[in-house]
């Protein structure tokens, strides 16, 4: 950052001088006085900072007293630059913001653009280059919208500095070429000097040392070099020094490095001194002059420490300033909103008054001209339009009610199917207790099971309602990473009482380390409840049901193995191919069903990119295979 900051200071004044010249052209005594004060403050900025601020304070009070807002904005803008040169970024940013607001109020878009440019340079000086790039692009948009073509050159130069700091040399070269075009078009000699110096820096970074030397010499050998200030010459000599050092020409490297130090001391630029002393130390080290290299390094460390202190302090100050600015913006927005609301209420009151007067007038005219057929005809047409609109509204509402009724019927059908098995198992357990077929200890144990099964059934009801609600606008799928083993265990616990009632053993294998699956949680609940309840329904007393898992490359398969009645080939084909309601069979304990369960299972599996298969032997049982996509190991879900 520090090796570029000295250029930033000069570029801002390129935007200042033309505005001051415009003030001179207006030939007023007040403007002449302010113009002289601004130039005097600029000259004092590097030699006597306190006098420069005093001069600007007097100019500011003068413009406020004589109510010249544009000149007040110019004073604030100049103060921003002088504070910036001094390294007081918080004060600089404050004055740039005030100047920008005042320029904007006066619709001076050139002034608004250059003040925003000052904001960007402060941010750039704090190494916040992405923010600075964004600000400079905003400046270019302002200049483009309001055809302030000449000022674009400075914005492009500032963009190149941030791009170079971020090592984006292609972008830096592009914007430098744009700066060169505008500099040549408007004969901006100083911008051309910056173009060559920054192009030389890019060439040096790309190890194109001869090209770098050519660019820096273009600054020093220019016929208009007398216009180049100490900063520009210091940067050019420093660029030559580092290029000659890289080429091994230590004599020329030392000569140019010493020249760069002389100009940096003349301009009192701490950023130049830090950069140039580091280059000089490298030259002495290459020449084997250890004592001189050590002295230069010590000097460089002093400047580096000073820059660090300045940067650290000003970063904190600018952050506080930005927080205050955001708070001010919020308060301003609140005030504007309240003012808008107040204005709106005023308008409403006025409108109501006007409306009341108009209403009285209309009533009077209506009473006076009630015999006019045209008026009645128009009123009749208006009433007809209202009736037609109401009829259309009624039709839409009837359609909506019909749709809701269809969804209601679908909801009750699904709930009656998916809740039948859990509620039936609870009922069967209660029948045993009522008939005193179980002892006190077993009843106590079954009470806990009933509580667990009731809680789980409520969860299933919530899942069903969530799914049915999604049907109002079509089936929605919200897939997430789910632990299949854990989910199966939770749902299986709701069927323990029903299994105990039929003396069916539930065996759940729980291998560790299985990957999570990608599925909609509500859909998964419906799928598992249907498959497990069907297994219990068609498994005879004294038999068992096993649940196991099989892992493939990118899938995890749940196997539900029962020792039930099994199915023949015809029934298997019907289940696999039919997408509608399937005729349900009576269970081993005379359980009944609607035939909707497997239809819903197949629909939800398809929506979740899962697959479904059945192997069955009549009289021996069935195995259901449900395969889900697994979540990749490197995915954070």
UniProtKB/TrEMBL annotation:
Residues 414-632 form the Histidine kinase domain. It is an enzyme of class 2 (transferase). GO terms for molecular function: histidine phosphotransfer kinase activity; phosphorelay sensor kinase activity. Its EC number is 2.7.13.3. The chain crosses the membrane at residues 347-367. The keyword Coiled coil applies. Keywords: Coiled coil, Kinase, Membrane, Phosphoprotein, Transferase, Transmembrane, Transmembrane helix. The keyword Phosphoprotein applies. One of its GO terms (cellular component) is plasma membrane. Residues 321-348 form a coiled coil. This is histidine kinase. The lineage of its organism: Bacteria, Pseudomonadati, Bacteroidota, Flavobacteriia, Flavobacteriales.
């Amino acid at each position: 950052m520090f090796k570029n900051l000295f250029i930033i200071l000069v570029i801002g004044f390129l935007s200042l001088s033309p505005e001051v010249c415009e003030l001179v052209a207006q030939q007023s005594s007040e403007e002449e006085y302010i113009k002289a004060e601004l130039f005097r403050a600029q000259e004092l900025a590097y030699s006597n900072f306190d006098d420069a601020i005093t001069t600007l304070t007097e100019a500011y009070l003068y413009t406020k007293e004589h109510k010249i807002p544009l000149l007040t904005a110019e004073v604030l803008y100049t103060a921003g630059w002088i504070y910036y040169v001094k390294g007081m970024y918080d004060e600089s940013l404050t004055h740039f913001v005030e100047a920008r607001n005042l320029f904007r109020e006066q619709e001076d878009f050139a002034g608004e653009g250059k003040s925003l440019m000052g904001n960007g340079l402060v941010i750039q000086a704090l190494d916040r280059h992405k923010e600075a790039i964004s600000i400079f692009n905003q400046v270019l948009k302002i200049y483009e919208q309001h055809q302030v073509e000449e000022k674009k050159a400075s914005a492009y130069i500032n963009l190149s500095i941030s791009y170079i700091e971020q090592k984006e040399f292609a972008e830096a070269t592009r914007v430098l070429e744009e700066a060169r075009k505008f500099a040549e078009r408007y004969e901006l000699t100083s911008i051309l000097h910056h173009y060559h110096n920054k192009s030389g820096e890019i060439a040096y970074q790309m190890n194109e040392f001869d090209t770098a030397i050519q660019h820096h010499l273009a600054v020093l050998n220019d016929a208009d070099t007398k216009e180049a200030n100490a900063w520009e010459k210091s940067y050019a000599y420093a660029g030559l020094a580092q290029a000659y050092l890289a080429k091994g020409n230590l004599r020329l490297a030392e000569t140019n490095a010493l020249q760069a130090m002389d100009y940096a001391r003349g301009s009192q630029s701490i950023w130049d001194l830090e950069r140039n002393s580091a280059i000089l130390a490298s030259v002495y080290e290459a020449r084997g002059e250890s004592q001189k290299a050590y002295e230069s390094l010590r000097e460089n460390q002093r400047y580096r420490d000073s820059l660090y202190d300045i940067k650290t302090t000003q970063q904190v100050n600018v952050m506080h300033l930005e927080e205050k600015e955001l708070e001010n913006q919020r308060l301003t927005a609140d005030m504007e909103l309240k003012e808008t609301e107040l204005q709106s209420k005023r308008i409403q009151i006025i409108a109501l008054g006007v409306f009341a007067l108009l209403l009285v007038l209309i009533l009077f005219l209506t009473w006076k001209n009630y015999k006019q057929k045209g008026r009645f005809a128009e009123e009749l047409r208006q009433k007809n339009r209202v009736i037609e609109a109401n009829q259309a509204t009624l039709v839409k509402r009837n359609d909506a009610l019909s749709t809701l009724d269809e969804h209601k019927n679908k909801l009750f059908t699904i709930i009656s199917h998916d809740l039948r098995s859990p509620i039936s198992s609870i009922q069967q357990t209660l029948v045993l207790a009522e008939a005193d077929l179980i002892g006190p200890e077993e009843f106590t144990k079954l009470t806990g099971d009933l509580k667990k099964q009731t809680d789980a059934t409520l969860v299933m009801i919530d899942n069903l309602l969530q799914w049915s609600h999604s049907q109002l606008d079509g089936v929605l799928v919200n897939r997430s990473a789910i632990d299949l083993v854990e989910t199966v265990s939770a749902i299986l616990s709701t069927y323990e009482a029903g299994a105990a009632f039929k003396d069916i053993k539930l065996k759940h294998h729980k291998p560790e380390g299985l990957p999570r699956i990608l599925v909609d949680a509500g859909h998964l609940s419906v799928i598992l409840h249907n498959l497990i309840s069907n297994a219990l329904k068609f498994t005879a007393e004294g038999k068992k049901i096993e649940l196991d898992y099989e892992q493939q490359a990118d899938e995890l398969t749940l196997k539900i193995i029962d020792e039930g009645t099994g199915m023949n080939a015809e029934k298997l084909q019907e289940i696999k191919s039919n997408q509608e309601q399937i005729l349900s069979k009576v269970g081993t304990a005379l359980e009944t069903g609607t035939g909707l369960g497997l239809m819903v299972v197949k629909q939800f599996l398809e929506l979740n990119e899962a697959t479904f298969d059945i192997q069955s032997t009549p009289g021996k049982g069935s195995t259901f295979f449900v395969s889900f996509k697994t979540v990749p190991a490197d995915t954070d879900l």
